[in-house]
Amino acid sequence: MSESKAMILGCSGLKLTDEEKAFFRAERPWGFILFGRNISEAQQIADLVAELRECVGWHAPVLIDQEGGRVQRIRPPILQHYPPGQALGDLYRRDRALGLRAAWLMSRLHAFDLRRFGINVDCLPVLDVPVEGSNNVIGNRAYGGDPATVTAMGRAAAEGLKAGGLLPVMKHMPGHGRGFADSHLELPVVTVSREELQAHDFPPFVAMKDELMAMTCHVVFTAIDPDNPATTSRKVIDQVIRTEIGFQGLLLSDDTSMNALSGTIGERAANIIAGGCDIVLHCNGHMDEMREVVANVPPLTGAARKRARIVEDGFPAPDATDEAAIRAEFDAMFATA
Based on the number of CB atoms within 10 Å of its own CB, is 322 exposed (0-12), middle (13-18) or buried (19 or more)? Predict the structure, then answer.
């Protein structure tokens, strides 16, 4: 079996086109990611996931952003609507034990939901710590505005996913909370000192550095590298993510097609790999862009291959939690919230 390439790709619709099937078979992405355009009903999702894996010939990771709130790709009537991270954080600020339980329960329910479709990676928890006035791209997706709350809730959320057999992806390393621009549209530039970042932005990632996967942020930190966003910055990835934070897991870029990144799609993909990310993430399913990505992404080899292998071998067996019981418990927490 030929080696996977260092990329995770999306697809265009509810089922694969013949062109997509041939492309994925030939180019062998390491994994796939689903978005709202790929969702219509339960059986269709399961069929699409199976189709994606059939193209690459193994049980490849299939990712989704299923946070709750406005970032929930599978919505009612297929799955219930879940609250955003801030609502869980509000519960934590009133009653810490209850808040932590809510974060664990919601992730455990995500795992029940997603495993039915064959999805095995949820891009959660959001470990960003917003500051006053920052752009709403994070906003109520965050558990709170202080690193201690975000750390405690993020850890509970990750543990809930793993208890259900899924793996989490921490985001957005080393921290998107100070972005005063939406990185989907333009490049946020953060000008505070490294000491301030160490005190406020990095701690949740340091505390959870042993998780197997993380996603970068398209944010410039002028105190570390004034010229490049974290996703393409060798300084940020080597000095901060790998050394100071100490994360040794599989590092995914945020989406290559977000306009915070400059250059062509191919140049962005090449810069992501050159900067030290292990995996290029490309989400929109546009074939012309995906062809540019694959032309600039290498096979998974060396340290990146070892980290990917640890992920592949690291999917836990789900526990024996009773779904109906915990769904009732969780729903009761938010019945009057």
Answer: exposed
Structure token pair of residue 329: 């418990």
Instruction: Please give the full DSSP string across 156-220, using - where no structure is assigned.
Output: HHHHHHHHTT-EE-EEEET--TT-SS-TTTS--EE-S-HHHHHHHTSHHHHHTTTSSEEEE---E
Query: What is the four-CA torsion angle of 99, 102, 104, 106, rounded to 10 degrees?
Result: -140
Whole-number Å distance between alpha carbons of 337 and 68: 15
Structure token digits, residue 332 = 């009761």
Joined together, the tokens standing for residue 49 give: 């996931």
3-state SS, residue 335: coil
The residues carrying an active-site annotation are 184, 254
**H or E element, residue 332:** helix 323-333
Alpha-carbon gap, residue 30 to 324, rounded angstroms: 34
Question: Which tops the pLDDT comparison, 260 or 325?
Answer: 325
pLDDT at 234: 98
Q: Measure the CA–CA gap between 229 and 64, rounded to whole angstroms.
A: 24
Tokens of 148: 């201690």
Q: Three-state DSSP class for 248?
A: coil
User: Whole-angstrom Cα distance, residue 268 to residue 50?
Assistant: 30
The structure's pTM equals 0.97
